[in-house]
Amino acid sequence: MKTMRTTTSGLLMGSTLLLIGFLALMMVDWAWWGLFVGGLVAWILAFKDDGKLALSFPRKLWIAPIGVMIYFVSSMVIGLIMSVIGFEWVSNPAAGHLGQIIWMLPFMLMGEEFLGIGILEGARSKGLSMLTSSLLSAVIFGLLHIPAYWDGSLISTVLHVLLLQGVARLIFNYIYIKTGRSIWGSWITHMIVDIIALAL
Fold first, then answer.
1. Is 28 part of any domain?
2. What CA–CA distance (Å, rounded) separates 69 from 48?
3. What pLDDT digit, counting tens, does each position of 122-156 carry?
4. Is 181 a domain residue?
């Protein structure tokens, strides 16, 4: 499996833009486009021509609905276990407001894919295995969701974002790999998951 080539400076500039874009998305209502724009520019800076590899048409796209089902089953099981233990996790702030953000959602989630897949491919370019790179992507992706899911307890919030958002990232990364390392495969899966979750 070909590794996307990058440079340390490209990764640093890209990481900075991704972080700024993600923080803008999380903290400023009108900057919903921040992660998409920052992620796109970061992707170009970090991977240059090799970045086009991830824009290929997805193969085995039938695996996307399976990924969606795995996500919802795992999240329900995790949520039930943590509830029994005594944790009361907050829901997504956008839950129930799908109609208000439906036209923004494709861009916001593609920004999140640039972030998650960017970390995965950036780590692989530095010699890490696919498994280690995917785990690193999931941990960082999860922890970046702390502001959105803060419930007043650091332990509870960290468990929340790692066990739900982090696990979701692992699933999206797997779909990305299985669809031929196509960011469209993970994006489509991410879209289906969020549309269902926000509609409930």
1. yes
2. 34
3. 999 999 999 999 999 999 999 999 988 999 899 99
4. yes
